[in-house]
Design goal:
The protein is mainly alpha-helical and 293 residues long. It folds into two domains: 5-59, no CATH class; 61-93 and 120-150 and 161-285, MetI-like fold. The protein contains 13 helices and no strands. α4 packs antiparallel against α10. The longest helix has 32 residues, at 5-36. The chain starts with a helix and ends in an 8-residue tail after the last helix. One of its GO terms (biological process) is transmembrane transport.
């Protein structure tokens, strides 16, 4: 179909605007990546503004992985993202599957209770008191248990389980399968798109844990990566994580800016690497609850 001159001009303007937006969006990410690999001497000579370094260096990454503060924080964030995501998916899927079956007693009451949690936020003090009474202060489990599931995710996953035919469950029970066997062997394998989507949401949330760590964690050896990154970005004269780290950046003859950029790259890389593998399931999972004709 031949386009008119007006349509061609309109398409050209769209491409130009979208290209400009893409450049403005991607340039900060590119600059962070480039600076993190820049040699310290070249960074000093060019006063920190580098578009493409001539001398590449891994000194900033080697320094970060040589400090105990950064290693401990990365290990805590990895634990949160793996164990926390797995537990959250199990709890969310179990609750959603139970609520999707009409034979469950008290089903309507539990649904109303879940909706109430979406409408009313208790704030900061009640969760803190609960965590304190449970003895979870200064424990990494305080970053997992209080946010183990989400009412919104339970409702969305319930809508997905509603679309699974009840006949599959009945056939499994006729063959002698228990409720747990049906859940793990039939329901969960059919729910890969939903699990992938919510797993990505949970993983990102756990990996980016910040505010709850500020409230519940006092021991610097147990803080997640985002706390260390925040300390590095806020205080230009600090080491990786503040006073708890003994190795100072100034002693390493590495520009503070390159170490900051390297820390930002490391903190964002895991999620960026995981997303492509979940993309085909993610595009299906985000359609949960949509209107289907």
């Amino acid at each position: 179909m031949k386009l008119s001159i007006g349509s061609r001009l309109f398409n050209a303007a769209n491409y130009a605007v979208l290209s400009l937006i893409g450049i403005v969006t991607l340039f900060p990410l590119y600059y962070v990546l480039v600076v993190s690999f820049t040699d310290s001497h070249e960074f000093a000579e060019k006063n920190g503004f580098i578009l493409f370094p001539t001398n590449w260096s891994l000194a900033a990454y080697e320094y970060l992985f040589s400090t105990s503060a950064f290693i401990n924080a990365a290990a805590v964030s990895t634990f949160l993202a793996t164990v926390g995501t797995a537990l959250s998916l199990i709890v969310t899927a179990a609750m959603a599957f139970s609520l999707s079956r009409k034979r469950l007693r008290g089903r309507q009451f539990m649904l109303v209770a879940i909706v109430i949690t979406l409408l009313f936020n208790p704030g900061i003090i009640p969760p803190y008191l609960v965590v304190k009474e449970l003895g979870l202060i200064n424990s990494v489990w305080s970053l997992i248990i209080p946010v183990l599931t989400s009412g919104w995710y339970v409702i969305l996953m319930k809508s997905f389980f509603d679309s699974i035919p009840v006949e599959l469950e009945e056939a499994a029970m006729i063959d002698g399968s228990t409720d747990l066997g049906t859940f793990f062997r039939i329901v969960l394998p059919l729910s890969a798109p939903a699990l992938a989507a919510f797993g990505l949401f949970y993983a990102v949330a756990y990996w980016n844990t910040f505010f709850s760590a500020v409230l519940y964690i006092n021991d610097f050896a147990k803080v997640p990566l985002q706390i260390v990154l925040r300390n590095m970005l806020v205080d230009s004269s600090t080491s990786t994580g503040g006073s708890a780290a003994v190795e100072m950046i100034s002693e390493q003859q590495i520009p503070t800016q390159t170490i900051k950029m390297a820390a930002v790259v490391i903190s964002t890389l895991p999620i960026v690497c995981i997303y492509p593998f979940l993309q085909k399931h993610f595009t299906k999972g985000v359609m949960l609850g949509s209107v289907k004709g």
